Amino acid sequence: MTSHAHPALAALRQLGLITATQFDEAMDELAILALDEDDDVDMPRLAANADTAETLAWLLRTDLLPQDAFLQRVRELPRQHDGAALQQRQQLAADALRQVNRQAVDTLYDENLINQWQRDAPTPACLRTACCPRRSPPCARCSHKAA
What we know:
The protein is built from 7 helices and no strands. By secondary structure, the chain is mostly helical. Helix 1 (7-15) packs across helix 3 (52-61), helix 3 packs across helix 5 (83-110) and helix 4 packs antiparallel against helix 5 (83-110). The longest helix is centred in the middle third of the chain and has 28 residues, at 83-110. The model is unreliable at 133-141 (pLDDT under 50).
């Protein structure tokens, strides 16, 4: 394990969105990736300045945080938190899942499994908000690329 924790990983642990074991496994993985910086490792890298949503998305993409376990933890949040603390955790989870889903759609496009229209099509949820790039400039919550 590295001598100091990645700040966003530490924040996720403090928020209770990852377990101590998941934190330790992620730190171990970061240490391995740091040793193999020049190698073409088939593991996404986590930027040193990644925020908590990006870090949570990285954990989900790499299966260091199994999605089923994470979704169960998110479902249990209302029993453990309320008010602003609950909203913060739910928003963070939503932002991370949006990033994971956007990357999955981009991967399908990169592999020629979907076309550009399918990749860039707004979701029904996005069309209900004012942040869709087809309706207004995208906001930080919208994962769709500007057309």
